[in-house]
Amino acid sequence: MDLPVMPPVKPMLAKSVKKIPPGMHYEAKWDGFRAIVHRDGPELVIGSRTGKPLTRYFPELATALLERLPERCVVDGEIVIAHEGRLDFDKLTERIHPAASRVKMLAEKTPASFIAFDLLALGDESLMNTPLTERRAKLAQALEGVGAPVHLAPSTTDIEVARHWFEQYEGAGLDGVIAKPLDLAYRPDARLMYKIKHERTADVVVAGYRFHKTGPVVGSLLLGLYDEQGALQHVGVCAAFSDRRRAELVDELEPLRMDSPDGHPWAAWADEAAHETARLPGAPSRWSGKKDLSWVPLRPERVCEVGYDHMEGNRFRHTAQFRRWRPDRTPESCGYEQLEEPVSYDLAEVLSSGSGSGGAGR
Q1: Distance, CA of 23 to chain centre
Q2: What is the mean pLDDT of residues 207-226?
Q3: Is 90 exceeded by the pLDDT of residue 104?
C-alpha cells in the first residue's frame, strides 16, 4: 500500500455542546464503529478509532468497499448494522469474535453498512489540509451513484434542517447531530468538531457498585429498573465522580452493603447462563477481556436521578451521569415506563437523503 495518507490514522473527534451552533456543516451522529478505510487498488484496510484493523470482522464490507470506493483513497466513516429499521449497536459488537466461522455467519445474517462522511486522500493527493467544504464536495463526487451497503452521509448547512434531524432521526437509532466548521482541516485525534446529543433523566435504583481502579473507592454505581414482571434489570452504570466523592460514597452506601449477593436480585450474575434471560451486571463480553467485573452488592433501597442520552434496547447506551439522590422515590416506582420513547423513524429514509447530490440542504 502506497497512499499519501497511510494507516493507521486516528479520526478527528468532537466535543459535546448543549446546542447546535450556527453557520456550520451538519450531519447526523451515527451510533456505530468509527472507521477509516484505506484503499490502494486491491489492498484494503479498515482501521478502528484506535488504529487497530477491523477488516477481518466485516468481510462483506471489505468486498463492497473494494467494489464501490475509488481505486486509491482514504475515507472516514462509520460502520453500522441496521435491524428492523433502526441501528443496532449490540449486533455490531457481536462481530468482534475470534472465530472466523462465526464472523462469516453473522456477516450473512446481519450484514453491516458503511456511512462515508469525510475524505482524507484521493489518488496521489492528501486532503488533510483541505477545508471541509472542499473535502465534502470531492467525497460526494467520488461516491456519486454509490449503492448499498456503502452510503454517503446526509449533510446540510441549514441549521433548521439540522434541528429537524436532531428530533426526527433518533427514532432510527441515531444519537444526535455533528456540527463541523466549514473551513475545518482534518486533524487526527483532535476534538475540533461539535456533537449535540439528546439528554434525558430517569430515576433508577442503585443496587451495587464497583471499586475504582485506583483503590477501595467507588468507581461506578450499578443501576437498575423494574420491568413489567417486577424483576430488577441492570440497565447500566453512572460514573465520573471526583476522587473526594468516590471516597464519600463508600461511607454513604455502607449501611446498604450486603455481605454476599445471596438474596440480591442479581445474585446469579456469575452464572453465564443467567445472562440469557435477565440483564445482570458482569455479563461476559469480548470487550472486557480479563477486566475484573466483580461488584459490591447493595440492598436495592436507594434511588437516584441520572442523566442519559438514549437507550440501546433495555439499557442505557452510554454511561449515565449522576444528578442527585431521590429520597422521595421508592425503588418499586422506578420502572421502564418512565422512559421517553422517541418516535419511530425508518433508517432507510435517513440513508436515502444522503444519496444523489450528496446531502439534503446543500
Answers
A1: 26
A2: 92
A3: yes
Q: How far apart are alpha carbons 239 and 210 in whole angstroms?
A: 10
Q: How far apart are CA 194 and CA 18, in angstroms?
A: 10
User: Is the domain covering 200-338 a CATH 3.30.1340.30 domain?
Assistant: no
Full-model pTM: 0.74
Pairwise CA distance, residues 221 & 211, whole Å? 9
Element (H, E) at 239: strand 232-239
Give the containing element (helix H, strand E) for 147.
none
Residue 175 neighbours by CB distance under 10 Å = 21
Nearest of 167, 175, 166 to residue 310 by alpha carbon: 175
* Type of residue at 358: G
Of 15, 18, 19, 29, the active-site residue reads: 29
Please report, for the chain, the start and end positions of each structural domain, with discontinuous segments joined by +: 13-198, 200-338
The amino acid at 133: T
Give the closest residue to 202 by CA, choosing from 283, 87, 293, 309: 309
Active site residue 213: no
- Give me the CATH topology for the region 13-198: D-amino Acid Aminotransferase; Chain A, domain 1 (3.30.470)
Question: Model confidence at 66, in pLDDT bands (50, 70, 90)?
Answer: very high
pLDDT score, position 278: 61
Q: Are 209 and 221 in contact (CB under 8 A)?
A: yes
